[in-house]
Amino acid sequence: MKRILHYFTIFLLFSLVSGVQAQISKKEKAVLIDLYEALNGDSWTNSWNLESEVAHWYGVQIEDNHVVGIELPKNNLQGNLPYTLKRLENLEVLNLSFNKITGLLPSTLTQLENLKVLKLEMNDIKGDLPWNFSNWSKLEELTLFNNFLDGKVSETIGLAKNLRILNLSSNNFTGNLPKSIERLTKLESLGVLGNKFEGEIQIDFANMSNLFELILSHNRFDGALPKSIERLSKLKFVQLQGNRFDTSKGLENMGSKELVAFDSDDDKLNRKYSKLPLSRTRMADTKFEDNN
Known about the structure:
The chain is an alpha/beta fold. It has helices at 2-22, 26-38, 267-273, 278-281, and strands at residues 60-63, 66-71, 78-80, 93-95, 100-102, 117-119, 126-127, 141-143, 148-151, 165-167, 172-173, 189-191, 198-200, 213-215, 220-224, 237-239, 244-247, 261-263.
């Protein structure tokens, strides 16, 4: 009798799990198949068996019968992102970094109102950012470094009020940094090195009290460095070199006691603030963090 109850319990659990998997909508599965076909899924390092349950597909996270995460870094993805990704309305994490994705970014990505993490760094994506950030109030991380993106960054980026990490480095962005960035009071890391940003920085950093990393190096910024940077008490890493700043006097009394690396074109400030040799801090120009 105990053996019968044991097998019945196993059967019941199996049935419940199968039932949960079977309830994943056809619409969401169709979007994943679109992604698979658009990015040459047959050649992925970790491919999907389209005949199996979606819950078994590599890098796909499911909660409450919805796809909430797609994480396929370094998986040999090749091709253009499909516009149908917008139909994954519960998606919170999209990590397709370190692949060979090409083409333009779909403007429809901003329809993913629950998105918290978007990582597309180290691909071959081109064109501008066709995004109005007003729907991305939940977005916490946006990393797009090492692509071929260009054009200006929309002032609406300041509406992504929960951003903690913003890395646009090593692209071809132009214009000035949007002043609205100063509204990102939760921002911890801002990286824009190696672009074509220009003009005097108008951002008031005073309210960005969580910022610990500020990387503005190798652009075409001019004028005076914003004095408000002095008030960022949590700063650890600062890189300002390779620009056209007229003066850096506004940073002579920085309040941060956390500074580990400071690199600018002002040797006096460098000697005052840098705790690491400049040869090491300048390595950050080409060093990109891989958390995958």
